[in-house]
Write a structure and sequence with these properties.
alpha+beta; about 50% helix; 16 helices; 9-stranded mixed sheet; two-stranded antiparallel sheet; about 20% strand; globular
């Protein structure tokens, strides 16, 4: 509780800096409940609402990178340093260094994950990095929760990249995860906040399932289950990959359940080792190709493992149903957007794209406008019509669950 950010860094992320110079992929992520100090540790000390970005793990890692670069051992290599900073919010990726532009996560012909459009900033000193951190942190999505009036509602990933002659030499990914929340503790009925919480829990569960698969030497690791695990894929596989987790816990009796869950999560990460955690990249790619069509949906994973990850007590059935409904809405919406991209003329598609690109948009208005387009192109949009109808039904189900929750709270 009294340890400084620099001391935490010294015993966690600092040993991983060397990995990037040894042509490796390193990852350090902070995990814990909302309000436990993840952003404070990774991004820098807070004084009121102002953050000192030079006193966080991001800045400390950058400082050590430039210290190693100045040593004779590495000076002759001609390495150049680049940084990226992006967030994953509601299952979508946004570039925090490029006006929060929407990014796409795709796999190339070699099954390498590429974040298309992600801007890499060239930096020449630790001071340059601090300025970049400040710029990116100011754009990050925040919101109010039961535990924190200014809570990070997205996963933030800051990457330090070493390149030699424009070719990747090493990469250090520093991840400030959004705080996990139990449905039983979420008192809000706001659709946006509930959807945020459901998506956060969904991605954290996917991360744990990947760690579990790596620890058990499974032939397939479900990296595709979330955008978070997909973009971190190359940091988990390969012989020269190293991972560190900073477990954040909050003092106080009301945080006991969260503390236990965080420590169990950390214990799972500790089980990873060189012998059982490093998946050969070629075998992983082969497994991905063979099992892509057979992968279980995340809905099934949530049924099997959600309580183990997010709470030890059984969640009320209404709360579980509500969060699953929100996830279903998000999945159906994405499928609907894909169908729209294929069927709707570009002139009208642009209007709908502008509507959905807003972080907090009217979903019912989206459905109404989509209905209008379907009427104009009814013969060619049969599949699209089915998707929009499913989205309408899911929204209605969400309304019914909200009404039931409110009724139960007032009894």
């Amino acid at each position: 509780e009294t340890a400084t950010n620099e001391m935490v860094y010294r015993f966690t992320a600092r040993p991983l800096v060397q990995t990037t110079f040894d042509k490796g992929m390193a990852t350090c992520f902070a995990y814990g409940q909302t309000g436990s100090g993840k952003t404070h540790t990774m991004g820098g000390d807070f004084s009121g609402k102002k953050q000192n970005s030079s006193m966080g793990v991001y800045a400390f890692a950058a400082r050590d990178v430039f210290l190693l670069l100045s040593q004779p051992k590495y000076q002759h290599l001609g390495l150049q340093v680049y940084v990226t900073f992006f967030e994953i919010y509601n299952g979508k990726v946004y570039d925090l260094l490029n006006k929060k532009s929407r990014l796409r996560v795709l796999e190339d012909g070699k099954q390498q994950v590429q974040v298309v459009g992600l801007q890499e900033r060239s930096v020449s000193s630790a001071e340059d990095v601090v300025r970049v951190i400040e710029m990116g942190s100011a754009c990050r999505t925040q919101g109010q929760t039961f535990a924190n009036t200014s809570s990070s509602r997205s996963h933030a990933c800051f990457q330090i990249i070493l390149r030699k002659d424009k070719k990747l030499h090493g990469k250090f990914s520093l991840v400030d995860l959004a705080g996990n929340e139990r449905g039983i503790d979420t008192s809000t009925t706001d659709k946006q906040t509930i959807m945020e919480g459901a998506e956060i829990n969904k991605s954290l569960l996917a991360l744990k399932e990947c760690i579990r698969a790596l620890g058990q030497n499974k032939s397939h690791t479900p990296f595709r289950e979330s955008k978070l695990t997909q973009v971190l894929r190359d940091s988990f596989i390969g012989e020269n990959s190293r991972t560190c987790m900073i477990a954040m816990i909050s003092p106080g009796m009301n945080s006991c359940d969260y503390t236990l869950n965080t420590l169990r999560y950390a214990d799972r990460v500790k089980e990873l080792s060189i012998n059982n955690g490093g998946v050969n990249e070629e075998s992983q790619n082969n497994a991905d190709l063979k099992e892509y069509e057979e992968m279980a949906s995340l809905e099934e994973s949530m049924e099997d493992g959600e309580d183990e990850l997010l709470n030890d007590e059984e969640l009320p059935s209404l709360s579980c149903s509500f969060q699953k409904t929100m996830c279903q809405i998000e999945d159906i919406k994405e499928k609907t957007l894909e169908e729209l991209g294929e069927a709707v003329p570009k002139t009208k598609w642009s209007d709908l794209m502008a509507m959905k690109d807003q972080l907090d948009y009217d979903m019912e208005g989206f459905v109404s406008y989509a209905d209008k387009l379907i009427e104009e192109h009814s013969k060619s949009l049969l599949t699209l019509g089915e998707c929009v109808n499913s989205l309408r039904v899911a929204i209605e189900l969400q309304k019914q669950n909200t009404a039931k929750q409110n009724k139960r709270k007032h009894q």
